[in-house]
Amino acid sequence: MLFSVTPLYALLLSVILLVLWMRVTSKRAANKQSIGDGGDLELQLRVRQHGNCSEWSSFILILMILAEGMRAPSVYLHVSGVLFIIGRLAHPFGLKVETAAHPLRYVGNGTNILAALNLMVCLAVNLVSRAS
């Protein structure tokens, strides 16, 4: 089976992850901090932004690969992919040390959850239709 939708979003997510990783690495280099965060709140924030993106990306891409492998309609994959990219772009700007209630954090988390739920429904529908 040739995957055509998931690789597009995997590539976009890879770019976002690479940018977030470079922000962590540049801050570590500036602080001369090889491991950990040395108590620097800005470095902690950057590590968390990268970590959150890594955690969610793995989860969503696995669901996308499974759904595409089960031949879910591509429109559902694109809906989840676009929602997820929007969330991954918004979330780092909304993740703030001083507040947990930043609107972009809600956008990021909300779109991540919607993307996951959409893919989970795709998988469930495909599983049920195959069982009948």
Q: Termini separation (Å)?
A: 23 Å
> What's the helix-strand series?
HHHH
Major sheet attributes: none
- What is the number of helical segments per DSSP (H or I, 4+ residues)? 4
Work out the strand percent: under 5%
Rg over CA atoms: 17 Å
Number of strands: 0
Q: Please state the second-level CATH architecture.
A: Up-down Bundle
Unreliable stretches (pLDDT < 50, length at least 5) are none
Number of domains: 1
Which outline best applies?
A: elongated
CATH topology heading = Four Helix Bundle (Hemerythrin (Met), subunit A)
The helical percent reads: over 70%
Structural class: mainly alpha
Report the CATH superfamily. Answer: Membrane associated eicosanoid/glutathione metabolism-like domain
Report the CATH C-level class.
Mainly Alpha
On the 0-100 scale, what is the average pLDDT?
Answer: 94
How would you explain this protein's 3D organization?
- The chain is mainly α.
- It has one domain (6-131): Up-down Bundle (Four Helix Bundle (Hemerythrin (Met), subunit A)), CATH 1.20.120.
- It has helices spanning 6-31, 41-69, 74-94, 103-131.
